[in-house]
Amino acid sequence: MTTTQEAKSRGAALLDGIKASSWSSRLAVAIVAALVVLLLIQAVQDPGQFVSQLLIGITNGAIIALIALGYTLVYGIVELINFAHGDNFMIGSFVGVTVLSGTFLGLGFFAPIDAGSGAGIKIVGVILALIVAMIACGLINVGIERIAYKPLRNSPRLAVLITAIGMSFILQNLGLVWKGPSQISFPGLISDANIFAGITDAVAYRWKDLFVILVTVPLLIGLSYFIRGTRQGKAMRAVAQDKEAAAMMGINVNRTISVAFLLGGILAGASGVMFGLFNGTTVFDLGFRQGLYAFTAAVLGGIGNLTGAVVGGILIGIIGAMNDQYIGVRWTDVVIFTVLILVLVFRPRGLLGDRSAVQGGGGE
User: Global pTM?
Assistant: First the structure.
């Protein structure tokens, strides 16, 4: 009897909540419910294809999430949208393919690492490309902050915004001069074979996909530990909350801001190499498209929110993969940005709010 009464009271509370909600909230719930129903229908009709697309979406989303973290880290500290971040990601992919080629500035340092190399050489090549790209992009980001952003820290926001856009064009044109306008092929170091071959042919999940996840997860764990558990991470959290108070407590604010840019650049470098190995190509204007997706993911999750950037990246990846399969590739951008607009209309602060990335959580 007591259980029945509790159930009735909960049901009544739910109905009261629905009646008290605004029309926009009801519309948002209706849209989400309709999308969920459509996806469930597809999952029932062809579960293997649905799971395959879901896994592809998670993989693409992991790359987007790493780039989005760079946007949200910087915003959480200095409330600046670093539009050059996407092009720094592109530079990371260029550094990666250059390292694997074994040649730089016309000088050959070692034989190219390609699909014909031994397994051990491939592993060493991938690790080396990741490390060099992460260091290079981290230093580039710090240099951009010191040269372009630091002198304008007390200037109007419009001046900083225009400078960020200018730095984006500078990096993009450096990539154009460096590698030219044509697509650059990455060596096929990671197998395209299906992991589940011989177990089930219904679900397709390649070793390339697993590689992205195996690199992304440690980076996310390492970043989370750095922010929450280290002295410098605590300094970043303090600066994000109140720069003046942090400086009064002896924290070097300029160094802390540089560390935020360094971390963002490191993540951009790693994601650039992963993107190249995963997709097999890179090009000088890659940063604009992927940077736009990543910025969208950061806004979707709640700009300035660490968890929100990851959630937003995964959602963008899944939405894109599902749209490619069930609606059409031509409509992917339309669907992704429609979802973003709807989220911002019904929840302007993003899915998880806009608390500082270095503070961790979301919420109102």
Answer: 0.84
